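Entry for the shared binder. Reason: the reviewer on the internal report wants the predicted structure included alongside the sequence.
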Amino acid sequence: MANSAEPSTRRPKPKLVAPLWHTLGLLMILLAISAGLYRMQSGSPAAGEKHRNVVLYLSVIVSEWAMSFYIWLGGLIPGATKVRDFVGGCWRNRKGVLRDIALACAFWLAVTGVGVFMNFVLGSSHIESLGFLNPRGAAEVTLWVVMSMTAGFCEELVFRGYLQRQSFALTGSVALAVLAQGMLFGVAHWYQGVKMVVVIAALGIVFGIFAYWHKSLRPVMIAHALGDVVNLIAVCFP
């Protein structure tokens, strides 16, 4: 009697994007950066108050590029995922650029809706504690824009790229992976206060869903940077 094996319907186990020790190192860097930013914004304002935001913005820019460099170094490990694979390739023509910009704008509108809903649930008072972040003067406004562009690329690479895919490889669940990176995204901003952790975690989950659906970080990177720049406009022209 012929015994034909049925074709397997099991999906292959997702591959780790980097060794676990590398991921642990990234989480420790995230914790150190968040703790440092918390100390900066909650410390005594007596010293260097005039340039406090300049130092804060520069610290965020440098630390986020340092995390991205750490991920790039991880890509040099045999079998690890490269940065370009996290991002999702490159633009091949102008049509691709315009498509991703259009997707980013549409996604930004959706994220804004989530932000408005969270503002309704938590109350607008959770924004008041962020007054220390508002830029004042041309130098701070310029650095804010640079920081926004940096956050758009680096934070999406770290959270929606590296950590979401690593979480999926560890759990085998897309839902758990999206939830895990969103929670880490919120906790990484704990220096902004507990309510903002909740808001940012919710936004991180929405970003994670979109990144998984589109299989590319380009639109979410654009939307992230766009949202931060629009926040600047809202602050300067309330």
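Summary line for the report: Residues 102 and 219 are 8 Å apart (CA to CA).
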